[in-house]
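Assemble and predict.
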Amino acid sequence: MTPPPSASSAITHDALAPGHYVNPAPFDAYTAEAMSAAEERFYRASSIKLIWWKFRRHRLALASAIFLLLVYLMLPFVEVVAPYRLAQRHADHLSAPPQGVHLFHEGEFVGPFVYPYSFRFNLDTFKREYIVDRTKPQPLRFFCRGESYDFWGITTGNFHLVCPPKDGTFFLVGTDKLGRDLFSRIIYGARISMTVGLLGIAVSFIIGLTLGGLAGYMGGWVDATVQRMIEVLRSLPELPLWLALSAAVPANWSPVLVFFAITIILGLLDWPGLARAVRSKLLSLREEDFVRAAELMGASRTRIIAHHLVPNFMSHLIASATLSIPSMILGETALSFLGLGLRPPVTSWGVLLNEAQNLAAVNLYPWLLAPMVPVILVVLAFNFMGDGLRDAADPYS
Amino acid sequence: MAMVLYLLRRSMTMALTLLAISALVFIVIKLPPGDYLTNQIDELRSQGDASAVAKAEFLRQQYGLDRPVWEQYLAWVGVWPGPNGMSGLLQGDWGWSFEFQRPVNEVVGSALGLTILVNIATVIFIHFVAIPIAIYSATRQYSFGDYAATLVGYIGLATPNFLLALILLFYLNRWFGVSIGGMMDPQYANAPMSMAKAQSIAAHLVVPVIVIGLSGTAAMIRRMRANLLDELQKQYTVTARAKGMKPLPALLKYPFRMALNPFVADIGNLLPHLVSGSVLVSLVLSLPTVGPVLLQALKQQDQYLAGFILMFVAVLTVFGMLVSDLLLAVLDPRIRFGKR
């Protein structure tokens, strides 16, 4: 017995379902779906903003990002940060141990200072010995004029963040066998070591994006070929191939050419992961409605790829690229460490570590291992930041 | 039957991959300008040593270095008659080491076994360590142990293994006066295999295996933990618990087996990194694996020796991937029957 549709239907409805309440007020879509200010902000934010909000919540990733930013900002000004020049030799201080920075002299606060030390050759043990003179504290100078340097080949300067005391030395992590300040060399080495990763990833990014894009969008035999190439490269151990390729760099090339050759070698083997990601994303995205819409509106292939597809997964790509920068930095370090990568006078952390290859040397002069510290810090920071980016890359999930 | 077909198909792809790799390797070892003998001839010529030049020229002919490159490649693989007839990788003739003046077989013979030993030991280590820790972490999520494992994992993942080897080498030497370098104590070097020698090898294997395996272990723990956490939330696990199954069987019988799948699939991805790591760590710890020989061969342009070692590490990873795929096929019938 269905009641006839009439003006009294509301009443019969009530009668049919006792206890069922319907709000008599007219339905207004705007008030019903009104959002709080915070929600409103979230829904209207651009995806970059969303990614940033999500990334910000990873404390460790954020701290790593700031650390890396500071390091990269330092790179153009290494001359200012380092107390000495890259190749400046101190003939009186060969293989000198690190000079500790102290604050208190005989219970009295002096500020940051070092004790001078002088070199003596022990004829009994045939070892170099450094005698620290604990009577004369030598205060360090900050924001000071010190060793002059050639700044970018434009001008000469002598301003430093920190300088050795007057008539004194300041070797924070000691010197190498030629009497060069290791701390300054590590700072200078950052320039090469930190850019190798970026250039290498740029190379692999271009190759990966092109090949992955071609494979994903063209399909057919192009896809099959690229897939086989990826499979072959992924099943090869990277390092032995890196070794072989850098051994093929002719010995008579200039250090700059060698540097570029090494970055290209590092990037050349790293693209399969990126290409694979690009391909799979393209395959899934090209079935989406917005691509069909663009096609129907007559957009060209290149336009669809560049304007509709790539922006959709760029954040993922950048995140995964960040995660492969450390392997490049390590690759360069390993190659130079083994003597197949960069060669002096180009100075990178790997080149510096090359001197630490000999266990006997390391036993006598353990501070030669110091370039390891920045390598590990940078690699850790890139990993943490990459992890945070990867989590934040998809802000809608 | 399906399994046999799968095995056949998989072996076919492996053969093709190896073919592509062999071409790549050959290109790479041919990249440096000149070759060992040309360099030697140049050197001898500058010294005016005519008889030695004649000898080197003879060697060039002997090893077919005067032939076109594609012929050299085919002869190296062993599908084209070289100077000594059909004799290449496929026939088990791995070429001649110019530097050592001996066949490659003799130069690297003993290193091959040790390389395989180190890598297998590392794979076993990774599994024995990663699985229990991952299970513990997943079942006690957010506990102290879980956090500790995550932290150690993070550090393990990011610490470069050859630097770790260098640090360990330094500190163990300094604190305990033990040398962890080398594969065995010196007195066993030329001794025949005995119980004591095996023990010495095992003791020297511990540090390299941990160093090489650390990042792999960390990656495995993370993956396994994530997989297991996914499975533990699913309804069948809840059902199993609600039915009153004991916790451990309820864990191992269903969710664990599901989580194992992607884990096994990942061994294939892990292997190239392991082999890479083992080459580098061997160099630092002076383990007599193929690593140090490769470095020296590359530096001296000893092309057939370098080429063979590159080929060997490639075969090692590709074969390991085959094994991991076969394991996966045993575990998961969907793969066996060619469906995704």
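The beta strands of chain A are 102-105, 108-114, 117-122, 127-132, 138-139, 141-151, 155-163.
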